[in-house]
Design brief:
6-stranded mixed β-sheet; globular; 3-stranded parallel β-sheet
Length: about 900
């Protein structure tokens, strides 16, 4: 955090000064480790085993915050007797289909009271094709929408029933003992137990602990389950929805949160509404019903108002009840349209054009060679950036030009490079990881032809609409009917960013009165709003994101600095900061509470609960949606109002986290016969070779583990830092960190050259021999881990090889994010080959590893215990 988020880390240091203990778990000793009270080195890719061990410690010693767990989580709920856990299936859950490598979650469901002796199959939504669920990253929808819960599941408030979630969870994590954690993670039992004690002793009624992770935690083939394990642990200890607790995700740059709220993702619309599916959503009602989960609790029951208001914002007067508010104008998804599938489709000639805005996949994305070869097979490419980045110049100076794979004179891609305005040269908002919108004013005018993204897309849309002005073709109506009437100003007709924010906030169509809450949205077309969770940012016609009251002039919650969605609530689910009767768990940490005399919720923050719904409220029989939320249901966006220790559906790879080895690993899975995530997304083709892993042969060809991360002096793929003299001077050269032991073993000299090789590519850098990386003992063997920064490429003031060239493309099945924080490799002294010899060198490694030629299909091998395990067919 100190390395990649130094401004935010100042508050960790402030907390430390006031007595907080900071524990840093990281493979490498970093600037954070230097300040932390304790550093715990860990093997890359083993985090579920580590956190699962802490879950086991909590449950086996009954250290959970019992009253919180019983009332605020699904711990008492009984699971179907059809469910079979990984302990009995050697690493698989029940419902696994070895042909599609997906799960049917029917057996994971709850035991439902009104379906005695039978399983309520409708909960599993088995009309959904499970493989397509993975292809479209539909699990992301449940992350925002909560688990759809139908009917009334059976409960055991004593938590003793063998099928209650609490006992299922306890059995599941029982094998994650301190001894297993030591063997799998390389963390000593002493260090592990110290973390367990620190976390549990600082959690409960009077104290809370925060879990902070960086964006790299998600970049694993089990990345979503990493975060699930952290969430389970924080729920067990009562650290969710309370001050000083929670889970803080450190995003990659200033507005990553904003780019999912108003998304740049293929499967989401603003406010986490799903992109319609061509097969499932034939009508507006089909689409809305899939969002609001009929029969479930929560505010998603009002999805019709959110959806219709969004359609009205898109198409204005053209959106009427008679035409389903132009629902048919929305694009449809048909499968995997993610960035990596798209790149491979470029290579295959299926994609003709590509827009890149503030993105540099030539060096910033996994498998850089595939990225560059894909772009070289386009008809046209539009790049908007501050400099001529590698994704704009690949056709003339990429590594593939040197190897002869791209010939500049023959490359058919026409590149349109547009100069972009920097963040100081345009107005607008950032939405950071706390969900806070902060308005920024334009400091200076952009030079010459540099323009903002808002200018570019507004005028692109204007010009396209003008060219189609006389069209009577029905396919042009979605573009021609757009509400595209934003005010402009300045010499270049810059659209008003405040006007766009006003539209995002939403307003009454008749009066143009800004809405102050998403509860004011209507499903009849009388309101419009571009993102329902942002409603309130323009309350009373005032840009709330532009507030800057000093923290010294307001409460510690600082409600008048910027604006936080939803409705300026600084801590989500803060009803959980009070006990079931509405009293603060701790007077010292009082945050929101029920005021008996006033008959309303009050406190330091905006209560994340209906203000006048008392703790004693119980829903009537048959209630749904908001009416069904009871006074003791703090997690109001979940289908049952509770925190999920166990997920009966929504996740593609299982209802509970399970340790699997990374796709590339030198070790066999110590806990189960199933080696890697069985539902992972792989693109099995010869231009995306994966290094072998047990039980495959030739694992020793790539004996070391490597990982990547950031330096303070550079920003992501380097486009905003390598081109600046003062930053380039601070970190002028690509380098590779190795331990003294590995350096001696491989003959690597400090500040000399070395190269790192995988089945995809080879990169070189200066050797940095350092104790920041130390060998770990895993399964009785020594494992060496190598670290590389990923900021370099062929452009800028300082040049170097791109670490992302080393990775192949394997994705988490829930959200289709790439596994780019762990791989296997070899490291050798000296510089890498150049030209055609480079590809020959990599091919030699691939042949020795047995990964050349056409990949065989994944087949299912059934072991003697009856567990189905997807592995390679050796024939």
């Amino acid at each position: 955090m100190a390395e990649a988020h130094p401004v935010g880390f100042q508050w960790v240091v402030e907390a430390q000064k006031r007595g907080a203990r900071v524990i840093h778990v990281d493979p490498r000793f970093t600037r954070t480790s230097a300040v932390a009270d304790k550093h715990v080195p860990i093997r890359v890719g083993s985090d579920i085993a580590f956190l699962g061990g802490i879950v086991n410690y909590v449950l086996s010693n009954e250290l959970d915050f019992r009253e919180y767990v019983v009332d605020y989580t699904n711990a008492p709920v009984l699971v179907s007797d059809k469910f079979v856990d990984t302990d009995d299936l050697d690493g698989l859950f029940s419902g696994f289909d070895p042909e599609t490598r997906t799960y049917d979650p029917t057996s994971w469901q709850y035991d439902v009271e009104d379906e005695p002796g039978d399983l309520h199959r409708s909960q599993a939504d088995d009309s959904w094709e499970h493989a397509k669920h993975r292809e479209t990253a539909a699990g992301l929808q449940h992350e925002a929408h909560g688990i759809p819960i139908a009917s009334h599941p059976r409960r055991d408030e004593t938590l003793q029933h063998p099928r209650c979630v609490y006992q299922v969870l306890k059995r599941h994590f029982a094998r994650y003992t301190p001894e297993v954690v030591e063997q799998v993670c390389g963390v000593s039992q002493e260090d592990f137990l110290d973390v367990c004690r620190a976390w549990t002793e600082n959690s409960g009624r009077e104290r809370t602990t925060a879990l902070v992770y960086s964006v790299g935690w998600t970049q694993h083939s089990v990345g979503v389950q990493y975060i699930r394990t952290g969430a389970i642990l924080q729920l067990l200890l009562g650290n969710m929805g309370r001050p000083g607790g929670g889970i803080m995700a450190l995003r990659g740059h200033a507005s990553i949160q904003g780019s999912t709220d108003i998304p740049t993702l293929f499967n989401l619309l603003p406010g986490y509404l799903p992109m319609p599916d061509a097969d499932r959503h034939r009508s507006l009602s089909d689409w809305i019903d899939s969002v609001r989960n009929p029969g479930s609790k929560g505010f998603w029951s009002n999805a019709d108002a959110y959806a219709v208001s969004l359609l009205a914002a898109y198409w204005g007067d053209a959106a009427t009840a008679d035409n389903d508010f132009c629902f048919d104008y929305l694009p449809r998804i048909t499968g995997d349209h993610g960035t990596y599938r798209t790149v491979l489709d470029m290579i295959d000639g299926k994609v003709k054009g590509y827009f890149l805005l503030g993105q540099n996949p030539a060096v910033g994305s996994a498998h850089g060679r595939a990225q560059r070869l894909g772009m070289a097979n386009l008809d046209w490419l539009v790049v908007r950036d501050l400099f001529e980045i590698e994704s704009a110049s690949f056709w003339k100076d990429s590594p593939e030009v040197e190897t002869g794979e791209i010939v500049p004179e023959e490359c058919g891609t026409e590149v349109f490079l547009f100069p972009a305005a920097a963040y100081t040269e345009k107005e607008g908002t950032f939405t950071q990881t706390q969900r806070m919108l902060q308005w920024r004013e334009k400091a200076v005018e952009p030079p010459e032809d540099c323009r903002s993204e808002l200018w570019f897309f507004y005028h692109l849309g204007r010009m396209m609409r003008e060219r189609l002005g006389g069209s009577t073709d029905e396919r042009d109506r979605p573009l021609l009917d757009l509400a595209w009437d934003y005010p402009v100003h300045g010499a270049h007709d810059e659209p008003s960013a405040e006007a766009v924010l006003m539209e995002i906030n939403g307003y009454d169509v008749a009066t143009r009165r800004p809405l102050s809450s998403f509860t004011e949205m209507k499903a009849d077309g009388s309101t419009l709003g571009g993102c329902w969770i942002y409603t309130g940012v323009f309350t009373d016609g005032v840009n709330q994101a532009n507030r800057r009251k000093s923290r010294h002039d307001q409460s510690f919650v600082a409600p008048e600095w910027g604006w936080v969605w939803p409705l300026n609530r600084r801590i989500l689910y803060n009803r959980a900061s009070a006990d079931p009767e509405g009293r603060p768990w701790s007077e010292r940490k009082a945050y929101v509470w029920w005021d008996v005399d006033a008959g309303r919720w009050t406190g330091e923050d905006v209560p994340d609960f209906e203000k006048t719904k008392p703790p004693s409220y119980r829903s009537p029989v048959g209630a749904q949606g908001v009416e069904a939320i009871e006074g003791i249901d703090p997690f109001i966006m979940q289908g049952d109002g509770k925190g999920a220790l166990y997920a009966p559906q929504g996740l593609v790879d299982g209802p509970m986290p399970t340790h699997y080895e990374p796709v590339e690993s030198p070790f066999r899975n110590l806990l189960y016969g199933q080696q890697a995530n069985p539902t992972r997304v792989e693109y099995r083709r010869d231009d995306n070779r994966m290094n072998p892993a047990p039980p495959e042969e030739h694992v020793d060809v790539f004996p070391f583990v490597f990982t990547t991360s950031r330096l303070t002096e550079h920003h992501t793929a380097g486009a905003m830092s390598r081109y600046l003299e003062h930053l380039a001077e601070l970190q002028p050269e690509m380098f590779v960190e190795v331990s003294p032991v590995l350096a001696a073993e491989r003959g690597l000299e400090h500040m000399g050259w070395c190269h790192v090789v995988t089945a995809r590519s080879v990169v070189e850098g200066r050797v940095l021999v350092t104790d920041r990386l130390r060998p770990l003992k895993v399964e009785g063997r020594t494992v060496h881990q190598i670290w590389l920064p990923y900021h370099w490429g062929g452009g800028g003031k300082v040049k170097g090889d791109s670490a992302n060239d080393l990775f192949g493309i394997t994705l988490d099945p829930n959200v289709l994010i790439q596994e780019t924080k762990v791989g296997t490799c070899d490291v050798r002294a000296g510089r890498r080959p150049t030209g055609a010899a480079l590809r020959a060198y990599v091919e030699g490694y691939a042949r020795r590893a047995g990964v050349t030629g056409t990949y065989p299909p994944i087949v299912t091998v059934t072991d003697t215990d009856g567990a189905s395990t997807p592995e390679e067919d050796d024939e």
